[in-house]
Every structure is written in C-alpha cells, then in structure tokens.
Design brief:
It is a single chain. By secondary structure, this protein is an all-alpha fold. The chain has 2 domains: 74 residues, Multidrug-efflux Transporter Regulator, Chain: A, Domain 2 (Orthogonal Bundle), CATH 1.10.1660; 155 residues, no CATH class. Helix content is 67%, strand content 2%. It has 15 helices and 3 strands. A 3-stranded antiparallel sheet has the order 1-3-2. β2 and β3 form a beta hairpin. α5 packs antiparallel against α6 and α13 packs antiparallel against α15. It starts with 6 loop residues before the first strand and ends with a helix.
Length: 310
C-alpha cells in the first residue's frame, strides 16, 4: 500500500476533531485498528479510518456502547437492527423520565411531603392495567347500591380517565393528581353520596330525565350573568322555575321539603374536588375543558338557603 495514503494518528485527530487520546482508545479496542505501524512503531491508518471515526462518533453521540459500535462497524450486525432496538430502549427511557418530571413538577408546585411524594411516584409508575383497576375500584365504590344499575353506565364511562399511550406532560401530571383523588376516602364518599342522590331523583320518575345540576345551571346562569342577588325578591321567579323543574324531574310536589332536598343535592355537587376531577379528566382524555359550575352552584345554594332557613 502506498504510504502516502496512510494517516498518522495526529492527522486523524486534525481531520475528525477527536483527540489523539480518544482515537488511541478506539484503536486499542479494535474499533478503528491501524493498518500498519511505521519503522518507529507509530500507528498508521488507512483511508477508511476517517469515515469510520465519523461513524463511531455519531453512534457514541446516539448513546450506543463501544461493544455494539464495534459490531456495527465490523458489519457483524446490521445498523438498522441496532438503531431500531436502541430507539425502542430510548422510548422507554423517555417515558420514565417524563413520568419522573411530572411527579417532581407536582411535588414542587404543591409542596408535597415525603410520604405524598412517595405515593405520587408509585401512582405514576402504574401500568395501563393497574391504572384501569384503580379507576374501576374508585367507580365501583362511587356507583354502588342504587347507583349500580345499567342506567348509570354512561355516567360511569364519562368519568373514566384514559391516559393515551404517548401522553404529554400535562396529561401525565393530571393523571398523577386524578390517581391521588381516587384514593381519597372522603372524596370517594362524596362521589358516592352524589351518585345516590342522583339515583334517588330518578327512582320515582320514568323516561330520560335531566340531571339536577344541569337544570340549575341553565336556570340560574342567566340570573348570575345579569347580577341578580340570589337573596333578593328579583331571584324569586328564577328559584320558582328551578324548583318547578326539579319537582317535575323527581315527580314530587314543589314544596319546602323539595327545596331542601335540592339544596342538599347542590351542596354535594359543589364539592371543589369533583370539579377538579372533571377538569383533570378533560385534560387526560383530550376533551374540551368545560366552564366552571361553581359560580352558578354558589348562586343557587345561596338562593335556596335564603328561602329554606327557619
């Protein structure tokens, strides 16, 4: 071979931007072996050494280990096969890192304790099957007893978070918070109480009936927007229309007992944790975020309290 075609290790360093020490390291491990040694024992490399070093540097930048790189450059294993396996491994690592970031972000934002942080970390690492079991257990607890019949299947589905296979950071953080909420015994009891009240509303009525909260939203919303004081006489016709609609919904007389019943119903629905759950559910499932019902529920609760006290 023509000696002019060979490169010294210093020449390779200048051409590739790698250090002499790095090239010698690769050479000692057989990844870029010298073609020959000169009379003084210095290594001499063939014309393909530059391209080989560029490839090695690229593969190292992509995170491949030296043993795998040697097999690739020696053509013992196809690069496409190695790339596919490495990409799959990186996908798994990225998923883990994103979960960790979601937990750490939630910890920093909420000022969580060590115990809460440990719980969030465990919830974030649940498999898809484990997530489903957690949610099913929560919904089973909420829709037990009178609320367990088939009529509530649609409501149950509408309360089911389904984290996608490739969730974004906001969805991951929302899932961690939802999982925490579902484990809260007081929140479970609140959701069950609401489901039982809804079942009781339907018990003496036939056909498709509106939910009491939706009825109040549509009835009180315009009054709230118009600035009507819920305790003033101007609110009387609004309250009368709402209670008349609720009486028809429940197939009960519109009397003081019914107004008190509706008040209890709205107080249960006005749990801020429920609204938070619904918001997080929208984030996880990619649904449009609904407008907060808290203002209209607050208005109706104040109106009913003013007319049922004493």
């Amino acid at each position: 071979m023509n000696g002019d075609a060979l490169h010294s290790i210093g020449d390779l360093a200048r051409r590739t931007g790698l250090t002499v020490k790095t090239i010698r390291f690769y050479s000692d491990r057989g990844i870029v072996p010298p073609t020959e040694r000169g009379p003084t024992g210095h290594r001499r490399y063939g014309p393909d050494a530059v391209a080989r070093l560029y490839l090695v540097r690229t593969l190292r930048d992509l995170g491949l280990d030296l043993a795998t790189i040697r097999r690739v450059v020696d053509r013992d294993v196809p690069l496409t096969e190695v790339a596919a396996a490495h990409a799959e491994a990186l996908t798994a690592q990225i998923r883990v890192l994103r979960l960790r970031r979601a937990v750490l972000t939630a910890v920093a934002r909420r000022g969580s304790t060590l115990e809460e942080t440990d719980l969030m970390h465990k919830l974030a690492r649940l498999s898809a099957a484990e997530r489903r079991r957690l949610i099913e257990e929560f919904l089973d607890a909420a829709f037990a007893g009178p609320a367990a019949d088939a009529a509530f299947a649609g409501i149950r589905r509408s309360l089911t978070p389904e984290l996608p296979d490739d969730p974004d950071d906001e969805q991951l953080e929302a899932w961690v918070e939802v999982a925490e909420l579902t484990r809260d015994p007081d929140f479970r009891a609140s959701m069950r109480r609401l489901a039982e009240q809804h079942a009781a509303d339907r018990a003496s009525a036939t056909g498709v009936r509106r939910d009491a909260v939706a009825l109040v939203r549509d009835g009180a919303g315009p009054a709230l927007a118009a600035g009507v004081d819920p305790t003033s006489p101007r609110a009387d016709p609004v309250v009368a229309a709402i209670t008349a609609g609720y009486a028809q919904l429940c197939n009960r007389p519109d009397d003081l007992d019914l107004r008190r019943r509706l008040l209890v119903r709205l107080e249960s629905a006005n749990d801020p944790r429920r609204e938070r759950y619904l918001h997080l559910l929208s984030v996880i499932n990619g649904w449009p975020t609904t407008e907060s019902l808290a203002p209209v529920l607050d208005w109706a609760i104040r109106a009913l309290r003013a007319r049922t006290s004493g």
